[in-house]
Each structure stands twice: as C-alpha cells, then as structure tokens.
Amino acid sequence: MKLTSKWILWFVLVTVYASVIGGLFYYNLFKFVFDKKLQNEMVEMVRFRAPSLVQGLAARPKGEAPFVEAEIMKGMARNDDRISSLIYLNYDGSIRWHENTKFLRMPYTDYNNSVGFETNAVVQAIRDRLPRAILTQDGNSYDMAIPLLAKDNMVAGVVNVTVSRANAKKLIHSSMVRYVFGAFIMVVLIGGVLYLFLLLKILRPLQALKDSIEAVSLNNLSLSYNERKDEIGDVADSIKSLLSKIREDIKGLENVELMSLEKEQKWWKTILAVTVPKGSRAMVIDENNNILYTNFELKVPGKDVVHLLDIFDGRQQEIIQVVGEALENPTKVLRSSVINKDVQFLVKAVQLPDDAGKNRIVLVLEPESDSKK
Q1: Domain interval for residue 254
Q2: Is residue 347 situated within a structural domain?
Q3: Distances (CA, A) of 78 to 50, 64, 74, 86, 261
Q4: What is the pLDDT of residue 314?
C-alpha cells in the first residue's frame, strides 16, 4: 500500500475516533449545561414569587391556598408552556393548590396512593431543604420540588412542578449539529494542511529521489539530487556515499583486471615467441572473438578493442568456421586455409582448457609456402 493511502487511512481512523470521543464529551457537557439552565430557571421563577407565598403560608400554614397564592400558581402554569403540571403543598405535604380542586387539602400519602407523584423529589426537598430535580418520563421531563423557606430556615411549603425537557433537547441537538459541522470543517482544514505538508515535504522528494536512483547506471554511477537538510536528504547522502564506494570498487576491479591483462599479455608474448614459427602470425582471442594479443603489430583506427571480423571480413567464412569449431571442440587443433591480402594462409586454431572462466583461442596463420616446406 502506498504511503498516501496509509496516511489517509490512519488520519480517517484517528479523526473518527477523536470525533466520537469529543462528541460524547460535548453531548454530556451540553446536556449538563442546558438541563442546569432549565432547572435554574424553574427555581428562580419560584424564588421570585417566594416572599408572597411564604407570607401566605405563615398566615395560613394549613388548608388550601387563598386567592392570591392560587393566582400565582395559575399564572406560573399559564405563562410557561414548559410546565406540564404544578402542585403546591403545605409543609406537612398536604395539597394546598391543584388545578383539580378535588385534590385540595388531600394528604401527601393519600394523593400519592390515588394519583401518585412522579418521583420522591418532594420528600427529598423537604428533608434537605434544597431544590430537587429528578428525570422522569423516559428522560423527557424533570420532576422538580422547590422548597419555600421561612425566616427560621424551616420549610413552609413546597412547589412541585413537572417541566418538559423538549426545549433543552432541541438546544442540545442544535449544538451537536454545530459541533459535527465544526468538527468536519476542522478535520478538512487540518487534513488538507497535513496532506499538503506530506505532499511537499515527503511524497514529492521521495519521488524525485526514486527518479534519481532509477537514472543511475554503470555508465553513470552518480546521484543527481538536490541537497536537503532532513531525513530524506540523509538517505540521499547515504546513497551517494554508496555509489562513491561502488565507483571506487569498480575502479579497483578495473585496475586489477588491467594488471591481470598486462600479465596475461606478457605471458602470451613469451609462449608465442617460443611456439610459433618465425614469419607466422599468431593471435589470442577471447570467447567474444575480441583479440587480446598478437605477435605482430595490429592497429585498427578508431577502435580500442579489435574484433576478429575487423581483420577478416564476413566473406571469409573459413576463419569464422574454424574458430566456431574450436569453440565446440576444446583442446583439439583445427586447420583450415584463408586468403588475406592476396596471401594464402594455413590456419590453425585451438581452444585452450578453461582457466577460471576464461576461454582463450590461439589462432596461428602460416603462409602456405612456409607450411609446405
């Protein structure tokens, strides 16, 4: 898999993971904030009217609510559409006001047994003297109990209100939509910047390094790559150093091969001087029909390496045939005749035994007149 594909895959996985974790965090944060806001609004709504209510409770601690208190309860229920039900209780838990008049003055226990409170928030509020809110109706509403405290910090009465979370849930949903949209924009922006960095600083330099390496050959052991002060530049420097070592090794091998060839030529000079009759021409040929040594001066203009066909043209098939047969029959002396420059020669060819992978053919040309003598 390409580096780009791996980067995209990992980036997507990491961003999805981070977005999910962030989404859970922000969902709970939004839920806490907007639910707390809803609860505080209900508490403040009751506390704003608490002085009038406490005054009425002090004047008439038991029984049903007088006209003023009843109007306050009706006004709260009428003016806030989030309130689905509202019950006003005395300090002993009896019903002081209810939208259904038949429940007035009913004790807490009787009402709880006949109709039933959503939760025990009223009991907790009276016991702790603090507002209490408990989720109910599958999380769609809060059952809230807000105590009304007299001057001696005693509970004079309780307002029990069931308030809908519909608006809070809408706010949470809209906030989560904004979060998702913002997270998407952020991921796109960060991903674009990171990919641009990856493209300019890693991918393109690597491609340029790849092209430079592919351009290296035995004829050009050098790396054409601009100097960089980073890890890719370090890799390029290492490759340049390697190529430099290879050039030195090849140069050393060429020197060794050149020295070996010079030694071999001296060796052939001695052998041919002893074995080849005077007036005869001798040549040593490698497996590619290149002439390695002759006992006579041989120069072909414009060529450093002389091929057998540079001396004998393609029409002289006899010389080619005898060399080919010598290759197929090692150590066997093969004879033929050839005419070169209007002189007929007797040709002798023999392939010497293979020595460390070096095939050598000795080709001797004797003038026919000398050979008959």
Answers
A1: 220-269
A2: yes
A3: 18, 20, 6, 10, 115
A4: 53
